[in-house]
């Protein structure tokens, strides 16, 4: 597994990098077959350290975890525990998913935009209905079954996932509802 361990405006020493590789390697290899790479980012938010980990699996799915702590090692250890818990929870489905799929998940390119937040005032009306684009970037849309999409959304900890439905060859959306259930949008046509 390839590791990319970085720090945002903080130095990451060799001892921490070794600890990350050893601990995360054991946790991920225990529950996931053939992980391809891992990105671990450390940052500081006020008095706490933040650790964000993303592990890409050979099946094309991605698992993510994030943790905060006052010590940098504690932040990583908590993040690693969260990652291990996610992978343990989905171990059977990850293996079943890999057995059914001969090829990794297919990815399609798409544009992703970040829109500026509108400041609402009682008297001012917006000049136009066109939103202000703050950032534009490339993103990938995965070709998945509905079950795989729900699993990917939960592994990534995302509130919503846009995917290409393999069975209908169209764009679909799964999302976490306020009542805790998962919603699925399947446009007709």
UniProtKB/TrEMBL annotation:
One of its GO terms (molecular function) is ribosomal small subunit binding. GO terms for cellular component: cytosolic small ribosomal subunit. It holds the Pfam family Ribosomal_S30AE. It is found in: Cytoplasm. It comes from the Bacteria. One of its GO terms (biological process) is negative regulation of translational elongation. Transmembrane segments: none annotated. The keyword Cytoplasm applies. Keywords: Cytoplasm, Translation regulation. Residues 130-183 form the Sigma 54 modulation/S30EA ribosomal protein C-terminal domain. Required for dimerization of active 70S ribosomes into 100S ribosomes in stationary phase; 100S ribosomes are translationally inactive and sometimes present during exponential growth. Associates exclusively with 100S ribosomes, which are dimers of 70S ribosomes. Interacts with 100S ribosomes. NCBIfam families: yfiA (TIGR00741). Belongs to the HPF/YfiA ribosome-associated protein family. Long HPF subfamily. This is Ribosome hibernation promoting factor. It comes from Shimia litoralis.
């Amino acid at each position: 597994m390839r590791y990319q361990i970085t720090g945002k405006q903080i130095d990451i020493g060799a001892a921490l990098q070794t600890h990350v590789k050893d601990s995360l390697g054991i946790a991920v290899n225990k529950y996931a077959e053939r992980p391809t790479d891992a990105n671990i980012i450390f940052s500081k938010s006020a008095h706490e350290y933040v650790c964000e980990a993303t592990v890409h699996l050979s099946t094309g799915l991605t698992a993510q975890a994030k943790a905060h702590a006052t010590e940098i090692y504690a932040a990583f250890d908590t993040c690693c525990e969260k990652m291990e818990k996610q992978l343990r929870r989905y171990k059977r489905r990850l293996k079943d998913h890999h057995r059914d799929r001969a090829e990794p998940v297919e990815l399609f390119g798409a544009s992703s935009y970040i829109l500026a937040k509108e400041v609402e005032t009682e008297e001012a009306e917006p000049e136009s209905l066109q939103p202000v684009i703050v950032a534009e970037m490339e993103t990938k849309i995965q070709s998945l079954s509905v079950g795989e999409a729900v699993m990917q959304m939960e592994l990534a900890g995302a509130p919503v996932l846009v995917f290409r439905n393999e069975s209908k060859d169209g764009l679909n959306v799964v999302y976490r509802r306020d009542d805790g259930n998962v919603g699925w949008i399947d446009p007709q046509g």
